[in-house]
Amino acid sequence: MTPKKYYSLILILGFLTALGPFSIDMYLPGFPAIAADLKTSVADVSLSLSSFFIGISAGQLLYGPLLDRFGRKKPLYIGLVIYLFASLACAFATTIEALILLRFIQAVGSCAAAVGSVAMVRDLFPVKDSAKVFSSLMLVVGVSPMVAPTVGGYVTAGFGWEAVFLVLAGMAALIIMAVYIGLPESSRPDPSISLKPKPILTNFYAVIREPSFYTYALAGAVSFAGLLAYVAGSPLLFMEIFGVNEKQYGWIFAFLSIGLIGASQVNTFLLKRYRSQTIIKTALICQTLIAFALLGGMSLNILGLAGTVALLFLFLSSLGFTFPNASALAMAAFAKNAGSASALMGAAQMGIGALATVALSLFNSRTALPMAGIMATSALLAFIILLLGRKGIPASADPDAEAVPVFH
To answer: TM segments (predicted)?
Structure first.
C-alpha cells in the first residue's frame, strides 16, 4: 500500500468515524435555544442526546451482520442515506418528542458509518498496526469536538439551531461521494452468513465469549461512558452554571478536545516502546484519580471555571490513551466476523453511554455533581473490569501478532 493510498484511506475512514461525534457535538450549543423554541427544558432536550446514543447502540447490532453478509459498502450507503433524510427532518421538528424520535432514526443511520469504519480497519491493515491506525483515526475524529461545537455555536447564533441539522445533512452527502470515489470494498459478500435471528445470536455469542474481547470492549465502553456524561452535562455546566454564551462554549469544548486528540497521538509513539495492555492500565488509573479529584473539587465548590477546565482536560487526555488501545485489543482476535465484533463493541460503548446520559437527566440537580459522579464511577468500574477480566485471558493470546490484511 502506497503512503498516498494509506493516508487517503485513513482520511475517509476518519470522516466516517467522525459523523457520529459531529452529530453529537454540533448541536450542543443550541440546547438553550431548542428548549426555548420547543417550550421545554434543557434537561428534556438532553434526552434527544440519549435517544441518539440508544439508536447507535441498537443500530450497530443490526449493521454488524449486514456488513459481514453483504460486504462493507452497500450497508454503508443505506445507513448514510437514512442519516441524511433524518437530519433534514430534525431541522423541521416542532416538538421535543419529534426531535427525540428523529434523533433516534438519525443515529440508526450514522452507526453504519461507525461500525463500517472499525471493521474496515481490521480488513485493510495488519493487526499489529491496528492501535496506530485507531490513533490516526482519532486525530481526524478529534477534530470534530474542536470544530463541531464551535461551528455549531456560530451557526446557532447566526441562523438558528435548525441550520445545524441542515449542515449535517450536507456533510452526509459529501461523505457518500467520498465513499463511492475513494473507498475500496474491503470484504467480499459472504452468503454463508445468515441473517436469521438464531445464527446472528450464535455469531454474537462466539464473539462475546472471547476473553480478550469482553475484557477490553467492556472496560473501554464503561470508560467511554464518562466521556458521554461529560458531553451531555457540559451545556448545563458551562452555559448555565458558569454563564458562558454559545460561542464561548464552543471554544471551551474545542480546547478540551485538544487533550483527547493530543493524547491519542502521543499513544502512537508510546506503542513503539510499550504494549497496549500496559498503556491502557496506566491510563485507567490516571483517569480514575482525575475523575475523583474533579468530583471532590466540585463537591467543595473550590474549582471555579479554570480548575474545572483543567481537570476535564486531564480526564479527556486519559481517554485518548484508553480508547484506541481498548479498541485494538478487543478487535485483535477477529478476522472473519470483524463486523459483528465491531458492532458489539460499538453497541456496548453507546448502550452504556446512553444509560449514563439518562442517569444524568434523571438525577438533574441543576449542579454538575451528577456529571462528575458518573465520570468517577465509570472510570473506577472500567479499571476494576480490566483487572478482573485480564485474569481470564490466556497467556498465549497475543493481540499484537501479525495478520495479513485483505487489502494491499
So the answer is: 45-64, 76-94, 100-121, 133-157, 163-183, 213-231, 251-271, 283-303, 309-334, 341-363, 369-388
Torsion over CA of 357, 42, 81 and 356, rounded to 10 degrees? 0
CA 354 – CA 56 distance, rounded (Å): 9
What residues have CB less than 8 Å from 328, skipping those under 6 apart?
130, 131, 134, 276, 399
As a whole number of angstroms, the distance between CA 115 and CA 181 comes to 20
Task: Give pLDDT, residue 365.
Answer: 67
**What are the start-end ranges of the H helices in 332-368?**
338-362
Residue 20 · residue 110 · CB < 8 Å: yes
pLDDT above 50 for 405: no
Mean pLDDT of 212-220: 89
pTM of the model: 0.73
Return the residue matching grid coordinates 460561542: 247
Reply yes or no on whether the pLDDT at 121 is more than 80: no
201 CB burial (10 A radius; 0-12, 13-18, 19+) = exposed
Range list of H helices, 38-95:
42-70, 73-90
Instruction: For residue range 86-112, list pLDDT tens digits in order.
Output: 999 999 999 999 999 999 999 999 988
Nearest by Cα to 138 from 298, 313, 325:
325
Can you identify the CATH homologous superfamily of domain 3-183+197-390?
Answer: MFS general substrate transporter like domains (1.20.1250.20)
Contact 212, 393 (CB under 8 A): yes
CA dist., res. 403 & res. 195, Å (int): 28
Q: Which sign, positive or negative, has the C-alpha torsion 24, 359, 212, 339?
A: negative
**Structure confidence at residue 172 (pLDDT):** 94
What is the pLDDT confidence band of residue 162, given thresholds at 50, 70 and 90?
very high
- Rounded to whole angstroms, the Cα distance separating 189 from 196 reads 16
